[in-house]
Amino acid sequence: MSKLGNLGARLHRGEISYDFVGHRKLWYGISILITITAIVGLAVRGLNMGIDFQGGAVFTTEKTSVSVSQAQDYAEEASGHDAVVQKLGNGTLRIQIAGMDTTQSDEIKNKLAADFKVDPEKIAADLVGPSWGDQIANKAWQGLAIFMVLVVIYLAIAFEWRMAIAALIALIHDITITVGIYALVGFEVTPGTVIGLLTILGYSLYDTVVVFDSLKEQTKDITKQTRWTYSDVANRSINGTLVRSINTTVVALLPVAGLLFIGGGFLGAGTLNDISLSLFVGLAAGAYSSIFIATPLVADLKELEPEMKSLRKRVLAKRAQATTEEGQAQARGEDPHGDEPEDAHAVVGPRTQPASRNRGRGRPSGKRR
């Protein structure tokens, strides 16, 4: 842990760094590939919509020794439709069959009671209308649209419109990947899935705003110097907040992974799969997009401005001149870095100046003699 903390401190001070922005075309290509895969999966396989969205009947048995696979065979034979069977924590079974009306529900209930060898009154039956699922879906779309609009307005005011656009693209990227993986995996989409999708938007935006805040602070007076381009400072902002982003993402992913792999996998609590998968994929995609998509995209948009184009030309010209002088100095056998200032790796933006050493030591007044 101490090594990780030391790495974070060195990244923050700019002593070491990785050129995330310089390799942005690679990240864009990876994201486009993943997004296309998700869209194709969504188009080919579609989403496995739960009974809350399709409508149908839900049967709940008392504690029974009948296995899940056997209960599924009973339900499909009785209804003639595909059935989803989940074993609940108290040993009861939850059987979902889509497209059932009241008359069919009563017939299936009696058949299940005969197969399970129990009294029909021991099996609870609930009907779910598809209109309720439509209401949930409509509310979710409305909430998503309102959230996106508010995010764009806030970021445009707090930072600038380019950052708002980059954050919006990152959010769409995260949602598309999450929904696409849901289609590929085939997990059932329930109201819990919708809640999970809306929840990941906040996590995704958090990491992005942290980097944007650092970038805004470091680029206040960027045009007054000729050492760094906007992309250089954007890269420093990513490196400076990298360990923090990784730490917050890992801490958030651990309990969600416990729900998904332990609760849903080993313990068989299938009701946890809907929300845990959306959270797990969304959190990972949000951390990725904040580092590899949002900030490099802001750098691309900013460097379309005339001022940033001019700054980039001046910086590159100065670097070319420095390279030429360095080559000439090496040819003469001189040390090309002999007169390099100590703050050669200083970041753009305000910084606190250190106090003079030993100033006023041993003198109450603190004045020099």
Can I get a quick summary?
The chain is an alpha+beta fold and 369 residues long. The protein is built from 11 helices and 6 strands.
Describe, in plain words, how this protein is organized in 3D.
This protein is an alpha+beta fold and 369 residues long. 65% of the residues lie in helices and 7% in strands. It has a 4-stranded antiparallel beta sheet. It has a two-stranded parallel sheet with strand order 1-6. Helix 2 (24-45) packs across helix 7 and helix 7 runs antiparallel to helix 8. The protein is elongated and about 100 Å long.
Q: What is the topology?
A:
Elements: H1 2-13, H2 24-45, E1 48-49, H3 51-54, E2 56-60, H4 68-79, E3 83-87, E4 93-98, H5 102-116, E5 124-128, H6 130-158, H7 161-185, E6 188-189, H8 191-218, H9 230-266, H10 273-302, H11 306-331
Parallel strand pairs: 1-6
Antiparallel strand pairs: 2-4, 2-5, 3-4
Helix pairs in contact: 1-9, 2-7, 2-10, 4-5, 6-7, 6-8, 7-8, 7-10, 8-9, 8-10, 9-10
